[in-house]
From TrEMBL:
GO terms for molecular function: oxidoreductase activity. This is ER-bound oxygenase mpaB/mpaB'/Rubber oxygenase catalytic domain-containing protein. Residues 63-254 form the ER-bound oxygenase mpaB/mpaB'/Rubber oxygenase catalytic domain. It comes from Reticulomyxa filosa. Pfam families: MPAB_Lcp_cat (PF09995).
Amino acid sequence: MLYTFFLLSCFKNNDLCGSNINNLTLLGLVKWDESGPQHDLAIARDLCVDDSIFQDVECLHPRNNGWKSILRVRLLHAGVRHRLTHKKQQSSVGTNADDANHQAIINQCHLIATLLGFQFNPLINLLTVFGLPITFEEAQCYTHLWRYVGHVLGIKYPSGVRDALSDFDTSRAWMVKIYDKLIAPNDSSKLLASHVLQAIAYPLENAWPGKLMGINLNHLNSLFRAFLAEKYADEIGIGTQLRSNWWMELQVRTIIATFRLGHVYSYLFGLKKQA
């Protein structure tokens, strides 16, 4: 999810990593230092490479056709997966590892996680955050849509491994496993989350919508904390410093509650009308 947040910041500021000046601005903003840990510098370089891929994909127009939007997203992830494969090839040079197997594992795992992100995150946010009354059958149909997309893109599971998108409950279990076992939030995750939120807040604060509505880093922390739920927000350190600023979080939760009331009213009114 944090990776998506960074891409959104790139979308808002198309030149975020497009020049040396903006690269320095980003690195200065997120406080990465040449003397810091090497993995932090590697993360910064990877984010800028991903932004370059993102800008290439953004050149595809128009956007009013659904299949072209899917193509743009698919090309974006194909570029990221290609970079991951290339890095794995470099790391396996001089070893007895089977390069082909490593490539297949990287591509398959990343693609499965991508599809789960598009399938599970929207459903769970609509259900738990906005309170949109989605039936179990509707959730199943949406899940099978992304299962079909995965089939078309060539996802193959090892023998005995259940399809991650076979049903909604299975996708939930996969997402929990990916988050707890693969992402495994730690101190580095908290540092990266803080940097990404700062990178998003910086262009928003300086754009006219942000100035008009007074959007700042505190608002983003509260918003993402509300979307992630307190358990996961605490694990990656989002909004933990805002607990004393209860008014900011109350505003965000009030806005979300207003949306939920509208959905509940529409749902109940629709049922009465049908009856």
